[in-house]
Structures are given as structure tokens and as C-alpha cells.
Amino acid sequence: MTLSAGSKVGPYEILSLLGAGGMGEVYRGRDGALGRDVAVKVLPPAFSSDADRLRRFKQEAQAAASLNHPNILTIYHIGEQDGAPYIVSELLEGESLRQRLQAGGLPVRKTIDYGIQVARGLAAAHDKGIVHRDLKPENIFLTKDGRAKILDFGLAKLTRPEHDGSSPDSQTLTGRSEPGFVLGTAGYMSPEQVRGQIASPASDLFSFGAVLYEALTGRRAFRGDTAADTMSAILKEDPPEALESNRQIPPGLDRIVRHCLEKNPEERFQSARDVAFYLEALSSTSTSASLPAPAESRSVSKWAIYAGITLGLAAAFAFGAFVFGHRRDGLR
User: Fold this and answer.
1) What is the C-alpha radius of gyration for the chain, rounded to an integer number of angstroms?
2) d(CA 274, CA 120)
3) Distance CA 173, CA 125 (A)
4) What is the pLDDT of residue 22?
5) Alpha helix locations (H) across 128-217?
6) Domains of the chain
7) Which of 75, 122, 309, 324 is positioned for an S-S bond with 281, CB 3.0–4.6 A?
8) pLDDT band of 153, cuts 50, 70, 90
9) 306: confidence class by pLDDT, cuts 50, 70, 90
10) Count of C-beta atoms within a 10 Å radius of residue 258
11) Sequence-separated contacts (24+) of 187-195 with Cβ below 8 Å
């Protein structure tokens, strides 16, 4: 049941409905004590009787609340009213990446910029032992001032619990994942998630690669007539060459995307921090002419990517030194 303007959720006054989805309704609220507007996410009482949905809602709040990073949604408060739990978070002004992509792919420069921010947010979560497991354009918010924020840790799972003597069941936010239990969104899940295997940070990087591909080309990396067809494509097929859709994509960026989309998690990037580093190196390169050409083989080691980008940057430095030297000779 939709809350009316002026009603209260805990100490927060409801101002208007912002949106609704499978995990609850989101309202613009007012924090009178601090004099600021906030986002209030409420799980309707009709759904709070669903133990699994209720557990996922709470674990979203617990996972996100444990993180403090500019590229992750900030959680202020968790509460419950009349049997319905709610989360209060910062109020973001802007639109989701999904909404932005309705007009087509993004410029390469913006894709790299947003990609760096999302990779940094993932690195912060992974450092805490948290795997998102549901990264997709709907869960990336683009603010009006150019920031990218990761949303919805509702499927998040702690993979590196602190050994504090607690029982195994209490060391994860979701309980233990069993073989055959699939969580995620078709089209963005990693192959191991499709198979019902336990997700790792490398699983998030596969999803990240699918998001980058879509941002660059304006089309999904994996798509079928049904969810089953889409998941089959994730397991067996490679996405169409991104350069065929957008000739402006630097070859070095194409390498990074394809390396994220390796079927075997051992052959992907193992660190979101590494991905952010390579994207930052691309953003600091003024032209794509010095970037490495596309690899003939789909399997590209991160050292090959590093070497290519490093050589490009070294060439730019050498050119600058050459010009500077000639200017000095002219002054003599």
C-alpha cells in the first residue's frame, strides 16, 4: 500500500513516492531533526511475511551500511514500523544508468569516467569481503554532478567473514550458497553464477564488463529470447565485437572489457582496483593512437594490458621530452 504525503515512517515524514520495485517502495522523506531530505525504502507489510524477501531486504541494509565510500549509496538508518522494515539513505538526484542508456550508448570519455568510479566502489566493497552479485545498469545511479553510485546490495554476500567465534551461519549475510541456487539478473550474471556456484569478486567484474560493454555499444553483451537463452549465451557465446558498434572505442578499452568477460574466472581480472588503474591510465592518455591494438586471442593477461598502456604512456612522455628539448635549443 502506497504511503501518503505527510505520513510518518519512524521519525521521517513522507513527502512523495519516488519509485517501486521488487525489493520495496522508495519515497522522498524529510529528516526533521537534521533538516535534510532523504530516501526512505519500505518493504510493504504484505511482503514482509515472506521470510526470504525480508532477509534479503535486511541484508541489503547491513551490507551497504558497512561501507563508507563516495561511489556507494550511503545508508543512514535501519528501522521497522508496523511489521514493515525500512532503510533510510542519502537522497540522490539524477537517473540510473539504465535510464541514461535508453538514448543509446555513452561517449567513451563518460564511460571511462563512470567505469573508474564504479570499479573504485566495487574495490571498497571487496576489501570488506562483500560481493554485490547483482551489478547491472539499474543498480548504478548517475548523479547530476557526475558521480556514479552503486545501489542495492540486496543480493550481497560476505565472502571474508571476521573470525570472531560466531557460528558459520552468522558469518554471512545470506547464509551459505548451495550448488544450483541461482541469484542475480539474467544478462549480467557471471558464468559461475549461472551454474549456481558461489560468487567471488571476479564474478562482480564479469558483470562490470557486461555493463561497460552496454555503455559503450548501447546494446547488451548477452541477450536471448528467454532468460534461459540469455544464460546459455553467457556460458557459451562471446558478445559481438564492440568495435563493430562503436569505432571510437580505444583498443585498450576494448581489451579491458573483454578481459572482464572471460568465461573462466581465473582468467579475468582478480581485483577491481586493477581495473580502476587501467581505466585511469586510459583516461590520462590524450589520444587512442598510442593504445595497444586489439588482441587476436580473447584470452588477454592483465600484464599484457598493463604493458600496452605503459608503452603508450611512455611514448607520450618521450614525445614531450623531445619537444621540450627542441624548445630549449631554440632559446640558446
Assistant:
1) 22
2) 10
3) 14
4) 65
5) 191-194, 201-217
6) 8-90 (3.30.200.20), 94-318 (1.10.510.10)
7) 309
8) confident
9) low
10) 22
11) 187/136, 187/220, 187/221, 187/222, 187/223, 187/230, 187/234, 188/134, 188/135, 188/136, 189/231, 189/234, 190/234, 190/265, 191/234, 191/235, 191/263, 191/265, 192/265, 193/133, 194/231, 194/234, 194/235, 195/235
pLDDT digits (tens, 9 = 90+) for 48-75: 777 887 787 777 778 888 899 999 999 9
Q: Is 134 a catalytic site residue?
A: yes
Burial of 306 (0-12, 13-18, 19+ CB in 10 A): middle
Model's pTM, two decimal places? 0.78
Q: What is the mean pLDDT of the chain?
A: 81
Closest CA to 97 of 82, 86, 110, 80: 110
* Amino acid 27: pLDDT: 95
Rounded distance, CA 212 to CA 220, Å?
10
Q: Could you read off the pLDDT of 167-199 as tens digits, one per residue?
A: 332 222 233 344 444 567 889 999 999 999 989
What is the C-alpha separation between 322 and 238, in angstroms, rounded? Answer: 43
Residue 313 is placed in which grid cell?
604512456
Spatial separation of the C-alpha atoms in residues 137 and 116, rounded to whole Å: 15
Residue 145 half-sphere exposure toward CB, CA atoms < 13 A: 4
In the chain, what is the straight-line distance between the N-terminal and C-terminal CA atoms, in Å?
81
Catalytic residue among 31, 113, 134, 274: 134
How many whole angstroms separate alpha carbon 88 and alpha carbon 29?
Answer: 9
